[in-house]
Write a structure and sequence with these properties.
With about 140 residues, the protein is an alpha/beta fold. The protein contains seven helices and five strands; from the N terminus they run βααβααβααβαβ. α5 packs across α6 and α6 packs parallel to α7. It comes from Silvibacterium bohemicum.
């Protein structure tokens, strides 16, 4: 079954100290299905890579290789943004204290009726309240 993938889950695949059995299981799922992401996802993934390169946590080549591997995965970028996108996000921001970025993942999961793969504690708390099933959580 397709699912919505957020940047926190994606970045767990990049750094050994952030990988878990649960996050690796989500990555393996992409061999059998696809993930949906909001249009901001590429920026949210690239920014921590750039920061990691600047801080010396990884090399430019390692960041580039990770982005190339992501590009080969079955990840589809949702293109449902319009000038009124903020109006769709504002209720989630207001009710749960989410950032607009996090609200975009929750809105996408709810709109498409897909489970959400996230490690973000705010999304983990808000998703079930919106009827969104979570993937990648420890039992």
């Amino acid at each position: 079954m397709p699912f919505v993938l957020d940047a926190s889950m994606t970045m767990s695949w990049c750094f050994e100290d952030e990988k878990t059995q649960e996050t690796e299981a989500i990555l393996r799922e992409l061999a059998f299905t696809h993930a949906e992401v909001p249009a901001l996802w590429p920026y949210e993934v690239t920014n921590p890579l750039a920061s990691s390169v600047r801080r010396g946590r990884m090399s430019y080549t390692q960041a580039e290789n990770f982005l190339q591997r992501l590009g080969r995965l079955a990840i589809r970028i949702d293109d449902q943004n319009d000038p009124y996108t903020g109006l769709k996000l504002l209720p989630f921001i207001s009710q749960y204290g989410l950032t607009a970025y996090d609200a975009a993942y929750l809105e996408l999961a709810k709109r498409k009726r897909l489970p959400l793969a996230t490690l973000d504690k705010h999304l983990v708390a808000a998703a079930p309240l919106e009827g969104v099933f979570l993937l990648g959580q420890k039992p």
